[in-house]
Write a structure and sequence with these properties.
This protein has 338 residues and is an alpha+beta fold. The protein folds into 2 domains: 3-68 and 166-333, Aminopeptidase (3-Layer(aba) Sandwich); 70-151, Elongation Factor Tu (Ef-tu), domain 3, CATH 2.40.30. Helices cover 26% and strands 28% of the residues. It has 9 helices and 17 strands. The protein has an 8-stranded mixed sheet with strand order 1-2-12-3-13-16-14-15, sandwiched between helices. A 6-stranded antiparallel sheet has the order 5-4-9-6-7-8. A 3-stranded antiparallel sheet has the order 10-11-17.
Amino acid sequence: MNTSELILNLTSYNAVSGYENGFTGQLCDILKRYTEDVTVDRFNNVIAAVKSEKAGAPKVMLEAHIDQIGLMVSEIKDDGTVSFVSVGGIDPRILPASDCVILGRERVRGVIEAKSHDKEKLPKIEDMYVFTGFDSEHLKSIISAGDPVVFDVQPTSLCNGQLAGAALDDRAGIASLIMVLDKIKNANLNFDLYFLFSSQEELGMHGAYSGADEIQPDLAIAVDVTHGLTPSVKKEDGAFETGSGAIICRGPSLDYDLTNKLIDMAEKKSIKYDIEVAAGNSGTDAWAIQTAGSGVRTMLVSIPLKYMHTTVETIDVSDVEAVADLICEFLLGGDFNA
């Protein structure tokens, strides 16, 4: 399996938070190459399962979120401009002069402009608009308030195994879990393995809450991204160099003993890794999963990502592979008892 090609394919689909059905069908098609037990629930979570033949087997869940940040039409003005609001945490610096597509009854291409060009002041989202070229009457016949807006960008392969593009948060995590599926396809598991590809993480981890409650796993590993080092984001800010491998998170909301087993496995199998610390909410779906049912022993493994929540999010492909390798070794090691 070519990791770069897999990631590039996954980023080609649009799944703004709350509008994930633009991607769920394609993801199901990919997952059905490995298991027929694939469903989409009423919340747009995609759930796949690989069952063992052992009666009463424990449930292990792997999770990554499918949604991405984006925009949403809020009003079509009389002059034909389109006002919008953010869906998820958008860095407003990327918006002026960006190409976008409004996903209404028709796909409408546009460009984002600011109402003011004061070079000393960054415009707020409410001071920007989408210009499409259509008049308001025609626009109202093909788009409506509440339609999602996505950035019209293509991913880019950079030097030394780096990829840049939109939605790598968290398509990189999805890629790592698909690689796990590929690696364990011929294994005899003594546990039921569930994959939760959750919705609406960017809105408040909504899909992880409902999906984990539906599956009721005994233990879980959430896979997301964490901040990568850039000239403006330093190591003392809690960032990691791309190429650091699997970033294993430790903190009071994450299972202490199982997290140590992940670290031990990385050491034993010489899988590149680093340690991240979260004293409280990690800002990932791990925070939601741990509270499902009567509680889930949860771990968090992340992929360093530069320029988070922009259209040029950047990862090192080797980190995605390291996460997949670590999770596979942990699963096939077989000892989940603390």
